[in-house]
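Two proteins were folded this term; both appear here.
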Amino acid sequence: QVQLVESGGGLVQAGGSLRLSCAASRRTFRSVGMGWFRRAPGKDREFVAAITWIPGNTDYANSVKGRFTISGDSAKNTVYLQIDSAKPEDTAVYYCALREEYQYRYWGQGTQVTVSS
């Protein structure tokens, strides 16, 4: 099995930046991409951003476009999420996930991001 471990979460003031990282414990050649999701208190988990290794496409939720940047290393099954111009609405637990074919098969434990106003 593949285990994902997130890091980089923490407290940041509005307008600040954070960089989240997520790495797989084991390499998998079946990975076609990775993504980030988040869950705010009292809300359902929502999609944030995703990257497909080939051809390297990226997708973002409308709420984070222009502020968040996803990147990664397919050889290491590692993904990053650069958060810029953070807003209080970004406060949530962020989860990374690894996609195989059309499904996100493996999930991390989550890392807390708190944006103060």
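Next, the second protein.
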Amino acid sequence: QVQLVESGGGLVQAGGSLRLSCAASGRTFNTYEIGWFRQAPEKAREFVARISRTGGSTYYAGSVKGRFTISRDNAKNTVYLQMNGLKPEDTAVYSCTARYNGANWAYWGQGTQVTVSS
């Protein structure tokens, strides 16, 4: 079982940037696809981005494409979400998740709060 710990959230002004980190441990890290989801107050959880096991393939929600970049450093067992051009509507708790061999997203971190002011 893989363990996930997010960090890097905070308060920023609209137009600013943050980099979130997801540190993983447990089963061989490079066997897991990693995703980021977010959930705003009173809203359903929303997909943000995902990255393949080796980092060669990425996919983004339309709302963040062109502004966010997901990457991974398997030597450090860490996945990053670089967020640029932040908007107030990006305010949410961001959570990291992992799946093995194409299974369901089964492993979740505790989340990190991102707040973007106008």
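The chain has a mean pLDDT of 94. DSSP finds no helices and eleven strands in the chain. These notes refer to the second protein only.
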